[in-house]
Design goal:
The complex is a heterodimer of chains A (about 110) and B (about 110). Chain A has about 110 residues and is an all-beta fold. Chain A contains no helices and eleven strands. In chain A, strands 2, 4, 5, 6, 9, 10 and 11 form a seven-stranded mixed beta sheet that branches. A four-stranded antiparallel beta sheet of chain A has the order 1-3-8-7, with no helix packed on it. Chain B contains no helices and eleven strands. Chain B is globular and about 40 Å long. The chains are: A mainly beta (about 110), B mainly beta (about 110). The interface between A and B is medium-sized, with 24 and 21 residues.
């Protein structure tokens, strides 16, 4: 079974702090993604990566950066957390190629910025 | 970009009843997935179904790509089926576009 894990289920941070959200997948997938989910706005893509050290902006990259130094790990960084970044953050991974692009999600991190 | 619409937005069922959830999309797609989001927030993969019909236990799904819709069938519903059901598509590449979801509540 595909397993995607995230470093924390719940996180509380203060405004202005630097925040790291970590995601690890164990299926050797090329692609990894970060989404955020907000009531009334649904799930929106922040960033994705299709290879080590490669990244692409999603729909809402402002205020975020990412890092992918190893294939299995994709980190989301909030350089200076703000209250409007309080949200549910979901990481996903998928293979690439002829087998299709089914995405698998981690359990999510509920981040509260106070 | 591609638009994804799900219906109904809310559904309340008595345990044991059957239901059909619908997903319409505005353009051709190369990937369609159905997910169930449990009360703890995790998205569980139900089906990867860009076309055709698949079944998994009490759940089945059909995608008619030429008519740009997909259906998720839940038979003999159970209280554990409660949660939010999402349809998501990609029109190209790897970016998933999600519908707004259907909130399902199954009463015992």
């Amino acid at each position: 079974d595909v397993k995607v894990t995230q470093s924390s289920r719940y996180l509380v941070k203060r405004t202005g702090e630097k925040v790291f959200l970590e995601c690890v997948q164990d299926m050797d997938h090329e692609n990894m993604f970060w989404y955020r989910q907000d009531p009334g706005l649904g799930l929106r893509l922040i960033y994705f990566s299709y290879d080590v050290k490669m990244k692409e902006k999603g729909d809402i990259p402002e205020g975020y950066s990412v890092s992918r130094e190893k294939k299995e790990r994709f980190s989301l960084i909030l350089e200076s957390a703000s209250t409007n970044q309080t949200s549910m953050y979901l990481c996903a991974s998928s293979p690439t190629g002829a087998g299709g692009y089914e995405q698998y999600f981690g359990p999510g991190t509920r981040l509260t910025v106070t | 970009g591609i638009q994804v619409e799900q219906s109904p937005p809310d559904l309340i069922l008595q345990e044991g009843a059957n239901s059909t959830l619908r997903c319409n999309f505005s353009d051709s797609v190369n990937n369609l997935q159905w997910f169930h989001q449990n009360p703890w927030g995790q998205l569980i993969n139900l089906f990867y179904i860009p076309s055709g019909t698949k079944q998994n236990g009490r759940l089945s799904a059909t995608t008619v790509a030429t008519e740009r819709y997909s259906l998720l069938y839940i038979s003999s519903s159970q209280t554990t089926d409660s949660g939010v059901y999402f349809c998501a598509v990609t029109e190209y590449g790897n970016k998933l576009v999600f519908g707004a979801g259907t909130i399902l509540r199954v009463k015992s």
